[in-house]
């Protein structure tokens, strides 16, 4: 029981530290000016608000905008009810039918996952390479995608939570409960009070480590938006969300409904110019 108690103290300490860091970051971000950009296309314009609590993505995106990195590029990957993706440098002046998305000027930075920033419709997000070649889920800020998504039911959100959380719970049970199974069986018969104390400690350790894990619990705010406005809840926690469309959601609809080729590239080019506001 001593080792289990030590683990509990360590996990509680890390939980407190994580909460302090989150609160400090949130307070600091509230004191900064809000940054906006305008994405101009031949199908309409979208005004974007960049989040201050994802400062590295915000600053790198603004820097690329100032360099005109995105100007003349395309929304080259368009999937209705999913995303519209653009900004890759190899989409500039790309011939019809050419496969796009392998730009040479990629810029990789660490992810910035913020619980309050999620994949609602209109969210501005950073793509990345798959985890088998990108173990730390680094973001590629040389391109971006905007969520189109769809409306979900509460039952669908429950299913997405279970898909992520059940394997985590199972591993924690194997870590904390299984090694004490024989001891718990003995205490249940010989010392009911000791049995309850050990069981509470095991459950506490599981709950603490679960809360520190990459588990998935949709907040009331997320559920309200995903069941009304819509989005892509299954991408939360895997890709950094660093802004949102505040004007021009109808433009997302227009682009998402375009006819595309076998590689999801629109038959009609959608050209991009981005300006700071």
Automatic annotation (TrEMBL):
<dbReference type="Pfam" id="PF00160">
    <property type="entry name" value="Pro_isomerase"/>
</dbReference>
<dbReference type="InterPro" id="IPR044666">
    <property type="entry name" value="Cyclophilin_A-like"/>
</dbReference>
<dbReference type="InterPro" id="IPR002130">
    <property type="entry name" value="Cyclophilin-type_PPIase_dom"/>
</dbReference>
<feature type="domain" description="PPIase cyclophilin-type">
    <location>
        <begin position="40"/>
        <end position="273"/>
    </location>
</feature>
<protein>
    <recommendedName>
        <fullName>peptidylprolyl isomerase</fullName>
        <ecNumber>5.2.1.8</ecNumber>
    </recommendedName>
</protein>
<keyword id="KW-0697">Rotamase</keyword>
<keyword id="KW-0413">Isomerase</keyword>
<dbReference type="InterPro" id="IPR029000">
    <property type="entry name" value="Cyclophilin-like_dom_sf"/>
</dbReference>
<dbReference type="GO" id="GO:0003755">
    <property type="term" value="F:peptidyl-prolyl cis-trans isomerase activity"/>
</dbReference>
